[in-house]
Design brief:
It is a single chain. The protein has about 400 residues and is of the alpha/beta class. It contains six helices and 24 strands. A hairpin with a 3-residue loop joins strand 8 and strand 9. It binds ligand LQZAQKY5 and molybdate ion.
């Protein structure tokens, strides 16, 4: 077991233990927000037939030669074609078909005159304009040609992509899988919402934080359980959750206290412990293990420490599986417009609020104390400020590295 490792080492260690996931087919209506697993090429032309872009009359352009308001050309109307009709009557010289937008252009016709430039009755139409072949004529494939690349591999599927797939008649699409994740919060002090709090007890905020955060990054939260600090109970629950979970996120019991049982549980299960403790504050106590192909992230019970290690590690691993890379943290530089008076012997992540500015970006500390157990400071937090090991206090005007959360956390 590795002890007190660097964040980057922890990331690659975890990444090297991600099991193989197979892509899956889902109905296109359920594909929004997921990522395509392969390239998709057009199986057909769209539109599939030459069609009229206007309400008017389809004719041979040659028959309109010289037509004007003063000397209109008169044509016989031999068909009425609405959108959805087959429109197969051949148009000859001196003939036209009444046609509506989206209807197929009949054989023989090579243009459409808009109805505003005509006058008609039941049998004949007067043409007030001279047209060229191909005028007001949407050929088959005008939108999409058979064989066109519609969607690249690993594209985030949104409504536009889904509509394009629908226009091709494609009912299903192959997408990257959603990992199945279980949440297991531990602690004798935890009380379910709705119950009174006796002295020493707290409500279980981690359960809600972890479950909803997983949901936000496109994981499939299969279950969330709460257990007391009892080794046999934690062990039993992990054993039950493993078959249905690609990942398990636990909180609590990873430090050095007498009820910090997670490491012992991992050992007794025979799990491969990847590491215990990170060179990072908050978030030093963390234990990650692999048990029967399931990665278990044993996060700290301290809410802010749990959240920060979630964002740095769990988020990164989940998006490698579901392909939602835009939901991972993005590194940038910013000017610090606040004051953090403590020096940092260990690498430190401060909770911050980043705002774009003309020369790059500015960042301040989020409101609330920068303590590992302080949840309020995560309320208005859209980034982590990455303070390197051995840094003196951080003062106003200093350049800092920032790990930005996805835009959805910005106001
Ligand atoms: N002697 C030492 N004590 C501690 C050390 C150390 O190195 N030596 N490390 C400290 C640090 S840093 C942290 S962080 C915490 C980590 O503790 P655990 O991860 O073992 O977590 P717990 O002890 O179970 O809980 C910590 C804290 O969080 C509260 N908590 C727990 N679960 C929840 C929950 N589901 N929802 C809301 N709050 C929760 C819990 O009541 C505690 O207050 O250890 C330090 N100690
Ligand atoms: O390192 Mo603890 O994780 O301060 O919060």
């Amino acid at each position: 077991m590795k002890k007190r490792i660097e964040l980057n080492e922890a990331k690659s260690l975890l990444a090297s233990h991600i099991k193989k996931f197979a892509p899956l087919e889902v109905p296109i209506m359920e594909a929004a927000g997921r990522v395509s697993a392969k390239k998709i090429k057009a199986p057909m032309d769209q539109p599939p037939f030459d069609r009229s872009p206007l309400d008017g009359f389809a004719l041979k352009a040659e028959c309109s030669r010289g037509a004007s308001e003063d000397s209109p050309v008169e044509l016989e109307i031999i068909d009425w074609i609405y959108a959805g009709d087959a429109g197969e009557t051949k148009i000859g010289d001196g003939q036209a078909a009444r046609i509506m937008t989206g209807a197929p252009i009949p054989p023989g016709a090579n243009c459409v005159i808009r109805q505003e430039n005509t006058a008609w009755d039941e049998n004949t139409v007067k043409i007030f304009d001279s047209l060229k072949p191909g005028q007001n004529y949407a050929p088959a494939g005008e939108d999409i040609n058979k064989g066109d690349l519609l969607v690249e591999k690993e594209t985030l599927l949104k409504s536009s992509q889904i509509a394009v797939l629908a226009s091709m008649g494609l009912q299903e699409v192959e997408v990257m899988p959603k990992p199945a994740v279980s949440v297991l919060t531990t602690g004798n002090e935890l009380v379910p919402l709705g119950n009174d709090l006796e002295r020493g007890k707290i409500y279980n905020s981690n359960n809600y934080m972890m479950t909803t955060r997983l949901d936000e990054i496109g994981a499939d939260v299969v279950t969330n359980r709460v257990v007391s600090d009892k080794k046999t109970l934690i062990e039993k629950n992990i054993k039950e959750l493993v078959p249905e979970s690609d990942f398990i996120v636990t909180t609590g019991g990873v430090s050095v206290g007498e009820k910090d049982l997670m490491l012992e549980v991992f050992s007794e299960l025979g799990a491969e412990i990847l590491f215990w403790k990170l060179d990072l504050k908050p978030g030093t106590p963390i234990a990650c293990a692999v048990y029967e192909d399931t990665i278990i992230f044993g996060l700290s019970g301290n809410p802010a420490a749990a959240l920060i290690t979630f964002d740095l590690l769990v988020r990164n691993i989940v998006v490698q599986v579901n392909g939602l890379n835009h939901l991972d943290l993005k590194r940038t530089r910013a000017t610090f417009v606040d004051d953090f008076p403590r020096s940092s012997s260990t690498r430190r992540m401060l909770r911050g609020w980043f705002v774009n500015s003309e020369d790059g970006g500015i960042v301040r500390l989020s409101r609330g104390k920068q303590r590992p157990g302080v949840l309020k400071s995560t309320l208005e937090c859209n980034c982590l400020i990455d303070i390197p090991e051995g840094s003196p206090p951080v003062s106003e005007g200093q350049e800092v590295e920032v790990l930005k959360l996805p835009e959805m956390y910005s106001i």
